[in-house]
Amino acid sequence: MMATATDLRRPEIKTELPGPKARAIIEADAQFVNPAYPRPDFKLVAERGQGVWVEDVDGNMFLDCNAGVAVCSTGHCHPEVVRAIQDQAEQLIHICGTDYYYASMPELAKKLDEIVPLPRPTRTHFANSGTEAVETALKLAMHATGREKFISFFGSFHGRTLGSLSLTSSRVAQRLGFKRQVLDVVHMPYPNEYRNPFSADDCGDGGVVQGAVNWIENRLFKTTTPAEEVAAIVVEVVQGEGGYVPAPAGFMQELRRICDEHGILLIVDEVQSGMGRTGKMFALDHYGVKADIVCIAKGIASGLPLGVCVARADLMDWKPGAHASTFGGNPVAIAAALKTIELLQRELVANSAEVGAYLKRGLEKLMGKYDCIGDVRGMGMMIGVEFVKDRLSKIPDPDLRDRVEMETFNRGVILLGCGPNSIRWSPPLILTKENVDVALEIFDEAIAASR
Ligand SMILES: Cc1ncc(COP(=O)(O)O)c(C=O)c1O
């Protein structure tokens, strides 16, 4: 039976936001917690989550279209994931996989070998976060090639520990106060099709892809960055924190070619774009090429901390002690990851593609209605909406983006900004078309109220 408008479950906002209990918690947080957390203007104080719904401490119910920043891939507290965590917690919580053994560690590594966009065979290092997965990739690339230079992209985000921070460049706040970068990284513009950063001369008739290729081959390699000294090019197939900007068609193929010609490794950071988020298991799968090293975290374990660095097996020929982590690949996190992958393969990658396309069509319709939406882009359930003064001038409108984010929240839908003036849609991959209808109706109202 078709759902009617009245059947659709909607958010319920009962108090002012933040409500009284939330305000007390925010006050305590302001006193005792690290003030460097980059929290948005709206304040969500969560108490429980179920599926796509999050209830705050004052009993307000939100429709979550952010999934804890692209982490709760199977939705909040998916019953099968909860059961897998509970069963594992009753059996073995920790023993230290870098000194001892347990079956689920090679089981997950074998599963990753089957699904990651890398030539097989592969090996997996287990860590606890995205940044640790990236640190592993950087160390491994230096160790395997004997080279020290890296190429990264403006607008990229790879983490905030010192190695990954040398790559990260989506905001100055991430760098300010930390002086020199630890690694030898050269940054170049990302081939953003909506805002082509390259000159017409560089692009020729090959568009942004040709512009980027020229930048690498004719500028970097011929000036600051000799190709034979480059260990790796590190790239997000869809820039995440930088604004949900997908790589243009053909770009990953060109990077692959350049890497192969010069013995450079291709490190693909799928921390945000991986695990079904783009409607395929990995964003790189849309481009038909393979990487040398892939970094994964966020959505892999439905919210438990797990980061992995998967690499071509021949690259990982380092000796015992070269790299390891006490907690990395904790049995409980691995149990959650195995169940998450099962659910993704069973139904959620397909749902991400189908319902994501439906969401994107709805957002494109809104673009027809509002001249302040400059661009709607992305694949699956990784969709960016860029706000501008008007579509002709394309002048970024970060204030409008912030107002839309706030107005949407006040109406009970959780969405988070990314880049200077975009909003990211990164819902749990269980989102239904009915959820989309509700979320889009509220997003529409929020834009109308923000202009
Ligand atoms: C593409 C990408 N890489 C790395 C990271 C760092 O992950 P973590 O915050 O788990 O260290 C992030 C986090 O947002 C990310 O989006």
Rounded to an integer in angstroms, the radius of gyration calculated over CA atoms is 22 Å
* N→C terminal distance: 37 Å
Work out the strand percent: 15-25%
User: Quick one: overall form?
Assistant: globular
Main-sheet strand order equals 4-12-11-10-7-5-6
How do the helices and strands follow one another from N- to C-terminus?
HEEEHHHEHEHEHHEEEHEEEHEEHEEEH
Structural class: alpha/beta
Sheet with the most strands, sense and barrel status = 7 strands, mixed
Distinct small molecules = pyridoxal-5'-phosphate
Low-confidence stretches: none
Rounded mean pLDDT is 97
Number of helices: 12
Q: What level of helicity do the residues show? A: 25-40%
The strand count comes to 17
Describe the model.
This protein is of the alpha/beta class. Helices cover 36% and strands 17% of the residues. It is built from 12 helices and 17 strands. The strands form 4 sheets. It has a 7-stranded mixed sheet, with helices on both faces. The longest helix has 39 residues. It is globular. It starts with 19 loop residues before the first helix and ends with a helix. The mean pLDDT is 97. The structure holds pyridoxal-5'-phosphate. The site of pyridoxal-5'-phosphate (PLP) has 14 residues, from helix 5.
SSE topology sketch:
Elements: H1 20-32, E1 46-50, E2 53-56, E3 61-64, H2 67-70, H3 79-91, H4 104-115, E4 122-127, H5 130-145, E5 149-153, H6 162-167, E6 184-188, H7 200-203, H8 207-220, E7 230-235, E8 238-239, E9 245-246, H9 251-262, E10 265-269, E11 293-296, E12 307-312, H10 331-369, E13 373-379, E14 382-387, H11 398-410, E15 413-414, E16 416-418, E17 422-425, H12 433-450
Parallel strand pairs: 3-15, 5-6, 5-7, 7-10, 10-11
Antiparallel strand pairs: 1-2, 2-3, 4-12, 8-9, 11-12, 13-14, 14-17, 16-17
Helix pairs in contact: 3-10, 4-10, 8-9, 10-12, 11-12
Bound molecules: pyridoxal-5'-phosphate (PLP).
Residues 129-131, 134, 157-159, 236, 240-241, 269, 271-272, 297 line the site of pyridoxal-5'-phosphate (PLP).
